[in-house]
Design a protein that fits this description.
alpha+beta; 30% helix; 6 strands; elongated; single chain; two-stranded antiparallel ribbon; 4-stranded antiparallel β-sheet
């Protein structure tokens, strides 16, 4: 399974950004929250999620899309908890 990392102001926004860029639905991916978004006094920390594409056919389509657009690829981590 290929994993891709996305960011947003919130976890939901980061997931939506990933789904749009990969052109898949929520049911087509696994989601791991790497970092919750946080607001600080003078700055903020973006939420980070790792999306994994479930099916081989979708993974091929995603790979094609990612070759056209720069996207961070995160290596497979078998010990990572998935949501």
């Amino acid at each position: 399974m290929n994993y891709f990392e996305f960011t947003g102001k919130t976890v939901d926004e980061a997931i939506e950004n990933g789904l749009k860029e990969l052109n898949v639905t929520r049911e087509d991916v696994t989601v791991e929250v790497l970092e919750e978004g946080k607001k600080k006094l003078f700055s903020s920390v973006k939420a980070r999620v790792k999306l994994g594409v479930k099916t081989e056919e979708q993974a091929e389509e995603v790979a094609r899309i990612c070759n056209e657009k720069p996207t961070a690829v995160v290596p497979d981590s078998p010990k990572s908890p998935q949501i």
